[in-house]
Amino acid sequence: MNWFSDFFRSISDNYGHFFSWSDITGTLSDPVSWGIIGSLVLLEGLLSADNALVLAVMVKHLPKEQQKKALFYGILGAYLFRFLAIGLGTYLIGFWEVKVAGALYLFYIAYKGLFKGGGEEGETKNRGTSFWKTVLLVELMDIAFSIDSVIAAFGLSNKVWVLFLGGILGVLMMRGVAQLFLKLIARFPELEQTAFLLIAIIAGKMLAGAIGYEMPHVVFFTILIAVFVGTILYSSGKKKREANRKA
């Protein structure tokens, strides 16, 4: 019973951080926290740009007003899932076994994305389902899209508001500017692979944390920027070489 009471107390404390004004202001005033939040938003945008289009297809058969409502309820479900997952996950991530399991899962996701053609390209068909059934399907799809990014987020931070703000802005990014990320990926196709490379780097950071080594934030952000900018330069150079060959 002591274990159960300690577990319950720890979980309650974690959820308490959501309502702690000092935690909120501490997060908003910390440049490192914003750097991590920006990293999460960027990663979510690159991984989920096409997911917004999948969701749009899922609600396409509904009237215009109901389409907006279904997508809005889907966002609420995604936020609720993140709220529950972050509160529980910030407790579990304290165990090295959980960190190792999370790191191995992220390595698997990265491997599948880099070498197996990216993974989750299921067909989404319009079956003319009812409004509430469509909402349920959108909720489930939002949760499925969230799982990988939530696990990756724990590789970067265990601060509740850093993770939650990264998730909120990431979901809004997925819905609001999906076209921007799609255009960015269309212009620099290698960015899609870069997203999985970043997941592998985050997995390495999480695995290192499991054995007691915490990668300095400056090192991580430097690697992140170098990989992102390097990918754009490589992609631009590749296009120029191909253009010169055709000329």
Automatic annotation (TrEMBL):
Main location: membrane
UniProt KW keywords: Membrane, Transmembrane, Transmembrane helix
Compartment list: Membrane
Transmembrane annotation, as ranges: 36-59, 71-92, 98-115, 135-154, 160-182, 194-213, 219-237
The keyword NAD appears for this protein: no
This protein's record includes keyword DNA repair: no
InterPro entries linked: CHP03716_TM_YkoY (IPR022493), Integral_membrane_TerC (IPR005496)
Pfam families xref list: TerC
Membrane topology: Multi-pass membrane protein
Similarity remark: Belongs to the TerC family.
Protein name: DUF475 domain-containing protein
Species the sequence originates in: Paenibacillus helianthi
